[in-house]
Amino acid sequence: MLTPTERGGRTAGDGYDLGHHGDAEVGEGLVDLAVNVRTGTPPPWLAEWIAASLTGLAGYPDGRAARLAVALRHGRADEREVLLTAGAAEAFVLLARALRPRHAVVVHPQFTEPEAALRAAGHPVDRVLLPAADGFLLDPAAVPRDADLVVLGNPTNPTSVLHPATLVRELARPGRTLVVDEAFMDAVPGEPESLAAAREVPGLLVLRSLTKTWGLAGLRIGYVLGAREQIAALERAQPLWAVSTPALAAAVACMGADALAEAADAARQMAADRAYLLGRLGGFGAVRVAGDAPAAPFVLLRMADAGQVRERLRGLGYAVRRADTFPGLGPDWLRVAVRDRRTTDGFLNALSTATTELPVR
Predict the structure, then answer these.
(1) Judgement on whether residues 348 and 228 belong to the same structural domain of the protein
(2) Same domain assignment for residues 87 and 162
(3) HEC-encoded secondary structure of 203-232
């Protein structure tokens, strides 16, 4: 189903606040279940590595080593297939600046920054809304064939759905730019559905972030993978020295073998913690989990009076993310980050209190 959006601004004509993010939910004294950054990060070794880079601040940033490290990590021998960015969010702005789409489509529900960036640059955007009844799973046939820019998250924020790579590949076609936001893919054990190394897919751009696994939201480091000519076009739209020396150092560090092994361990632990959360949520008759098999470090929950529940949870010391700002979702949805079992137990006790007397959906 397609719904046209307005140009300009960060609030769509249908009232969705595209500029709302989980950090707005966090407050003093609240346990943070609203932001999807792994707790306890950055690890001490990474913080020390970044601190050591500060001795080079007098010189201009040199991204060559970081670009090569990222390229090799994803099986790309040519570093010109990599663009380093000030977080994945900058990549969405660069796409909006560099591309001139005739028919841009964003597949929702998903992270709102791609649509916000396109609209702010004056590009009309159509939406393909994946229905909850189908588990928010991608249907390639729902995307118009004439769309020359398609944006999809995988795994998707906020639904936690991991779309099969075979389905995502069906979206690619000559003359179309296919943007796949894989900001949370490194939280999926083994990354089985990643297209980061898929050099043969026409028009494919894959966006990645180091924010979530490594706790670097304040440093701003991400990257884009794609064909050389596509990357060159984005680079022409990027300001000089957009990525700082400490951020470049972090990129090199996070591509190392030991770092990748640590990230893999963290992904497996997160999957176990998510399974524990889902198992306990099964005892809540008034709460439903979106999708058949959540795959990201968060889950999307549906319940009656979700806004009231969210406020009750705040009163009980827990911040969760409202989800009615995501196109395709309404006031009965909340997004909750996966945390360790002790935190989960405390949250679920609070949720039990907050959902008392809610009707079963």
Answers:
(1) no
(2) yes
(3) CEEEEEECHHHHCCCCCCCEEEEECHHHHH
Whole-model pTM above 0.90?
Answer: yes
Residue 329 to residue 300: CA distance in whole angstroms: 10
List helix spans (H) across the chain. Answer: 44-52, 64-73, 88-98, 113-120, 165-169, 211-214, 228-237, 245-254, 257-281, 306-315, 341-354
Whether residue 8 is predicted with pLDDT greater than 50 in this model: the reply is no
With 0-12 / 13-18 / 19 or more C-beta atoms within 10 angstroms meaning exposed / middle / buried, residue 312 is middle
Residue ending a domain, choose from 214, 236, 256 = 256
Helix (H, G, I), strand (E, B) or coil at 106: strand
Residue 355 banded pLDDT, cuts 50, 70, 90: very high
The residue written with tokens 């990357």 in the block is 231
Structure confidence by residue, pLDDT tens digits, 41-70: 999 999 999 999 999 999 999 999 999 999
- Classify 262 as helix, strand or coil: helix
62 within domain boundaries:
yes
Residue 278 phi, psi (nearest 5): -65, -40
Helix (H) or strand (E) segment spanning residue 181: strand 177-181
